[in-house]
Amino acid sequence: MSAVETMDLPERSDVDLALAYHDGDAVATIATLLEDLKHLRQQLLLAEGAMSRGMTRGWMPSFERD
Questions:
Q1: CA–CA separation, 3 vs 30, rounded Å?
Q2: HSE on the CB side for 32, CA within 13 Å?
Q3: Cα–Cα distances in Å, from 42 out to 22, 32, 49, 51, 55?
Q4: Contact predicate 21/13, CB 8 Å
Q5: Can you tell me the distance from the alpha carbon of 35 to that of 18, in angstroms, rounded to the nearest whole number?
Q6: Can you spell out the DSSP letters for 5-62?
Q7: Domain residues for 43?
Q8: How far is CA 32 from CA 17, 27, 43, 46, in A?
Q9: How many domains does the chain have?
Q10: Residue 33: per-residue pLDDT
């Protein structure tokens, strides 16, 4: 496909890409995203325990969005 042909393709959103990965199955997409969220929260918890306040100049991770 040439560069001109790719310019004519509509840009797909992250939501579209996530749904396409699961062949349009919204339930499977949500389940995967929830599992990803659970995994990332566990990683954040581990990182929080491993880093000192001095290393981050007082910043601490937050589990909730501001």
A1: 34
A2: 13
A3: 24, 15, 11, 15, 20
A4: no
A5: 14
A6: HHHTSPPPPHHHHHHHHTTT-HHHHHHHHHHHHHHHHHHHHHHHHHS-TTTTTT----
A7: 11-50
A8: 13, 9, 16, 21
A9: 1
A10: 96
Query: Residue 29's closest CA among 18, 40, 39, 37?
Result: 18
When pLDDT is cut at 50, 70 and 90, the band that residue 53 belongs to is low
Residue 66 lies in a domain: no
Average of per-residue pLDDT across 20-46:
94
Q: List CB contacts of 7: < 8 A, sequence separation 6 or more.
A: none
